[in-house]
Design goal:
Elements: E1 2-7, H1 19-28, E2 31-41, H2 58-71, E3 77-85, H3 91-98, E4 105-109, H4 127-145, E5 152-153, H5 158-165, H6 175-191, E6 195-199, H7 215-223, E7 229-232, H8 245-254, E8 259-264, E9 267-272
Parallel strand pairs: 1-2, 2-3, 3-4, 4-5, 5-6, 6-7
Antiparallel strand pairs: 8-9
Bound molecules: zinc ion (ZN) (2 copies).
One zinc ion binds next to loops.
Amino acid sequence: MLTDYHIHSSVSVDGVDTMTDMARASYARGVRALCFTDHVDLDFHGTGLPDPDCFNCRAAMLEMFQTARRETPADLRLALGIELGEGNHDVERFCEISSSPELDFVLGSLHNIRGTIDFYDLRYTSLSEVETLAERYLDELIELSNLPYFDVMAHIGYIARYIRRDGFRDFAVTMDNYGDKLDIILKNLISHGRGVELNCSGLRRNPPEETLPGADIVRRYRQLGGEIITLGSDAHKTAHAGLHLAEGAELLRGAGFKYVTIYQKRKPEFIPLSKLD
Ligand SMILES: [Zn+2]
Ligand SMILES: [Zn+2]
């Protein structure tokens, strides 16, 4: 069996397929515990300004989830979560949305820093600008790590993917480069009983990239006493469902983890990694 606690359906603006189709494709690739985490971003991607309607997808999301429950195999454990972005930009809204009772799981993510557009849409032109942005990104992850309204921090190091795309091929968020700030984030998560996601989407890129976070950060998290870690494909279409999760599980074993985490009704449950293949 495999677990996937980061997947998008057509509820997300950048998602393609229904929850039923995503679940069936995941099941066919061996996933037996799956959590939908469609985007709820407090800021508009294109402007970085607050989006007051960001959770208007709620009714459609619930309806599609109930349909998926009816239309998928009984031995597939389905959970409903959200990928809640930029929570530190509006803490009140973060608290309000994350306390929605239907949610099994809340991924806390950061796609843009205050007042700027998504890292994906930014263009990176100079090394000094890149370094400043990376510091600000990590400072905001520290803020996020102190807030109690999510379960697991998504894709630590997300900014690096797009910096490399724009020509800074050697840029990376690693323990060597940013160990002081990463340690603060990881220690905060551990002390508040929250976890880290191992986002496997980089493994399907061409050429393949590291997981987010990279193996060195995952090892450090374990060394510091981190136990809660989820696996995520971050698939946005059926073609990507379930891919590279087994490699992610292998990376976790290599880093010293014995369990991968899933959530139901915001409570962690630990699945032995020996059961994942
Ligand atoms: Zn994300
Ligand atoms: Zn995502």
